Amino acid sequence: xxxxxxxxxxxxxxxxxxxxxxxxxEKNEMSLSLREAVFFAIKNNYDNRTALNDIEAAxxxxxxxxxxxxxxxxxxxxxxxxxxxxxxGVDFDQDxxxxxxxxxxxxxxxxxxxxxxxxxxxxGLQSAKTYLKISEQAKEKTELATREAVINAYGNVLVAEESxxxxxxxxxxxxxxxxxxxxxxxxxxxxxxxxxxxxxxxGNIISNIRNAKRMVEIAxxxxxxxxxxxxxxxxxxxxxxxxxxxxxxxLELLTQSFDLDNHIDYRIAExxxxxxxxxxxxxxxxxxxxxxAFINYSRLANAEDFTFFDSSQQWISTxxxxxxxxxxxxxxxxxxxxxxxxxxALESSDIRLEETKQxxxxxxKQARSQYQLSIExxxxxxxxxxxxxxxxxxxxxxxxxxxxxxxxLLETRNQLYTQQNNYxxxxxxxxxxxxxxxNALNVPVK
Length: 446
What we know:
The chain is of the alpha+beta class. It has helices at 2-27, 34-44, 46-67, 119-186, 192-227, 241-248, 264-285, 334-400, 406-440; strands at residues 29-32, 72-81, 104-117, 234-237, 290-303, 316-326. It has 9 helices and 6 strands. Helix 6 (241-248) crosses helix 9 (406-440). This is Outer membrane protein TolC. Residues 350-377 form a coiled coil. Its main location: membrane.
């Protein structure tokens, strides 16, 4: 009986361990399209998570500012033990209940205060709203930057993987040529230089494959960082380079209308101007008086012995209501200097706003130009690659027939390698320049 129970226990532990391992493995693996990667990063990217925290902090800051003008209640409790008295206690009551020079004294006070008017507070409320708006706009800006970073990182992974595949194909062809050259040399049909040339090419290809595989690993780690994942998270990308090039080849973007007033950078500049306007308003408000009211309620007791918890202890109650007015009269022109500084800051923000407008127009023009160039270069690179492949194929046939030399064939193959690299880079440029243009046009993340 005990043996059966032990078997069941061991089996249960094994199943639990096995299923836990599977769940942990599943959590450490992800399969993502580009769109899924972007939206995953919007939620989990480090910068976006920090931006969300900044928004929450801004909301709390807004309430902190609001609460400063709402009723405030504070309490205090003071106890005194007159260790050394100058003279004995004096009774102010015939019954001897009040002795202001008694050994023990306790006073408890509750105060309710209310701000009635303060120009700085009113400006502070407006500033808190602007501060929250700044945080929200920073989050929007971060989302756009995250999208571009993820698109570039996703594209880099695909390019790195495709580079490995191309190099491995090149190696297979070179292996065949090297094998044929060695066989020809053994049979006296080829020279030793032919073998050595192909061996040099073989070594270069192997070195490039090793480096390309390292680049794949690094590219995946960069993508994980952009996503907000641990760098060792296993990723499976469901889209190909050709898919992304097709999706990102959109000539309509070259003529798409541009709403300057709604651009995130322009709105941030406007908000910066608004902040400086409120700063000026704040400095001016400091010349206004402030008014507050308060009411408190106190209970006090005195005794020669510590009898404050006895039911017979006598307590005295007092209550006070009051108003306080603070009027700034003269600050040795300090307030005037601060007001002038705020006016200068506001003027500078107007200049920056105009600068932002001009820079955005130029930025969009440059982004469109780069995007158009990337599409043109891709078309050229695709044609050149097809030509290089045809030339290489013909030269290989001629070499097999003994019509051309190994030197001429390797020159042709090196030209093919160059066009292969140009083609990969052209594909990546379309993806990255499209992402840059989307940001320049302030295309929302969707």
